[in-house]
Amino acid sequence: MTGPREALRSYVQFLHEHEDVRHVRLSRTAKEGLARLTAKSKPQPVAPPPTVAAPRTSPPVATTIARSSMATAPAVVPAAPLEITGSTKAEQLRHLAERAAACVKCPHLVARRHTVVFGVGNPEAKLMFVGEAPGEEEDLQGEPFVGRAGQLLTKMIVAMGLTREQVYIGNIVKCRPDMPLGTSGNRKPTKQEMETCVPYLRAQIEVIKPLVLVALGATAIEGLLGPIGSIGSLRGKFHEFRGVPLMPTFHPSYLLRNQSNTEKRKVWEDLLKVMERLEMPVSEKQRGFFLAK
Ligand code: URA
Asked: Helix, strand, coil: what percent of the chain each, to 5?
C-alpha cells in the first residue's frame, strides 16, 4: 500500500526522470499537511480510474488517458483531427475554443485548471507563435504568454515592429500542466498530454493559415514536428509544418535564465529571418540589436 510520502516521492522521481523538472520545492503548509497525512494514513482501497466517455468522432484516446497515471509513462495514442465548423476564421476559432473549454480528456489537468488557455490574437495573422503550455499566470488569466516569459515575448514582437494584436499566440497544450499540491513552478507537459491536446493547435493553424510559424522552445518543436533534434541544432533554419515555414527558436524563459547578448542575438537573428520571410521592412537599427558596439 502506498502512503502519501511514497506517492509524492514517486511523483517527484517521475518529474525528474521524464519531465526534466530538476527542483521541486514544498511549501511549509504542504510539508505540514504531508506530515499530518502520513501520521493518519491507513491502507485505503484502490479507487477505480475515472472513466470519460470518448467523443463520437475520436479514437479511444480518452479511455487511455483516463487510465493513465501521472506516475507511469503512458503509451502515446495519436489523437484524431478536429472538425472545423463555421464560416469565418473568427467563428471557426470560436467553435474550437468552445470545444477546448469543454474538453475533459486529461482528467488530472481538468481537476486543477482555472481556465483553458486556447490562444489569443488575430485570426488573420500572418505570423503565429507557438509555445509549450500555460503557466500559473496564464492559467489564472486565460491568455497565453502573460507571465514573465510572456512579457519578454511581447517585447520581442514589438521589436519586430508588430503588436500582440497583429499576430496569433497559442500553445501545444491548452491546460496548465499540474504540479504536486503545495509546490510552485511549472512542468513540461508529458508526451501523452501533448498528443492529446495538439489537435487543437493543428486546427488553429489550419484555420489561421499563417505565412510563418515560430516555435518557441523544444516542446513546441516536438509537438509540431516530433522529436527531430535539439533546439540548439534546429534553430536558425526554416523547417516546415504542413507546408507552412516554421522557424524554431529559444523559448523566452530560456532568455530569462540566460540574459547574455549572445543568446538574445541568436533569437533576434531567428526573428530577423522571419521578418525577411514575411517581407517586412527591417531598419538598420533593428539589424543591429544585441550586437556588440
Ligand atoms: N510559456 C509557454 O510556453 N506558454 C505560455 O503560455 C506561457 C509560458
From this structure: 45, 10, 45
Half-sphere exposure of 162 (CA within 13 A, CB side): 26
Query: Hey, what domains does the chain have and what are their CATH numbers?
Result: 4-34 (no CATH), 89-287 (3.40.470.10)
Please, which residues bridge with residue 26 across strands?
183
Give 176-203 pLDDT, tens digit per residue. Answer: 999 999 998 999 999 999 999 999 999 9
Q: How far is the CA of 43 from the centre of ligand 1 (A)?
A: 39
Name the residue of 114, 138, 146, 148 whose CB sits within 8 Å of the most ligand 1 atoms, as the mutation to test its pocket.
138
| Residue among 120, 253, 256, 257 whose CB has most ligand 1 atoms within 8 A, to mutate | 253
pTM exceeding the 0.70 threshold for the entire prediction: yes
Which tens digits make up the pLDDT trace of 28-85?
544 554 555 445 444 333 333 333 333 333 332 222 222 233 334 444 556 899 999 9
H helix intervals, 71-147: 89-101, 107-110, 136-141
